Amino acid sequence: MAALMTSVAVTAIAPLLVYLWPHPPKGQKKGILTVALDKPIDQLNDGEALRFNAPASPNSAFIMADGGGDNAAGELAFAGFAVKNNGKVSVFAINCSHLGCSVALNAKDKSFDCPCHGSRFHLDGTVLNGPAPVPLSHLTWKQGTDPTTIDVDGIVLGY
Ligand code: FES
After folding, report:
1. What is each CA distance from 141 to 2, 8, 81, 86, in whole angstroms?
2. Which ligand 1 atom is the nearest neighbour of the CA of 130?
3. d(CA 112, CA 57)
4. Residue 45 and residue 41: Cα distance in Å, rounded?
5. Could you tell me if residue 19 is inside a domain?
6. Residue 40 lies in a domain
7. 62 phi and psi, to 5 degrees?
8. Contact status, residue 158 vs residue 95, Cβ threshold 8 Å
9. Is 128's C-beta closer than 6 angstroms to any atom of ligand 1?
10. CA 20 to centroid of ligand 1, rounded, Å
11. Residue 7 domain-assigned?
């Protein structure tokens, strides 16, 4: 009788456990994504930003490190910017923190501007104008072995 009740309980709970802790889709793997920049990162000028994309083969994405809303830690980005601001290099996901459109560098005003609803960000990622409620999300990175590459935390989505 106990074995029968255990069997019934496992059968009833198993779908709930799979729902709560799904297996990652086959082929997905977190790791470091090495991306090439248009110039060595140590030669960035102040106010200059380099756009880069996540590798497309295999299909990959960067993992956001902070932020909030649609840019919360763990969310994915398919492109980013390395920017030098007041002597410090930062790397951001390209996603606007309002609804996720891609921001673009406004070199004249030294800001990142979103074409969708007008949000603007300082080069340090903080909000200059809404409706974006929170800053751009940083990406976790380090210099690559080559001066024109950076290693960014990401995920391979599939092969
Ligand atoms: S998505 Fe950027 S302002 Fe709305």
Report:
1. 54, 49, 11, 19
2. 3
3. 28
4. 9
5. no
6. yes
7. -90, 155
8. no
9. no
10. 31
11. no
18 in a domain, yes or no? no
Look at residue 2 and tell me whether its pLDDT is greater than 80.
no
User: How many domains are contained in the chain?
Assistant: 1
Q: Mean pLDDT for the chain?
A: 86
Range of the domain at 94: 26-158
* 131 pocket-lining for ligand 1 (C-beta < 6 Å): yes
List the CATH number of the domain containing 77: 2.102.10.10
The proportion of the chain whose per-residue pLDDT surpasses 70, expressed as a percent, equals 82
Considering the entire predicted model, what is its pTM? 0.79
- For residue 131, the ligand 1 atom closest to its alpha carbon is 3
Q: Which of 85, 91, 81, 115 is nearest to 101 (CA)?
A: 115
102 C-alpha to ligand 1 centroid (Å)? 8
Pocket test residue of 70, 101, 127 for ligand 1, highest count of atoms within 8 A of CB: 101
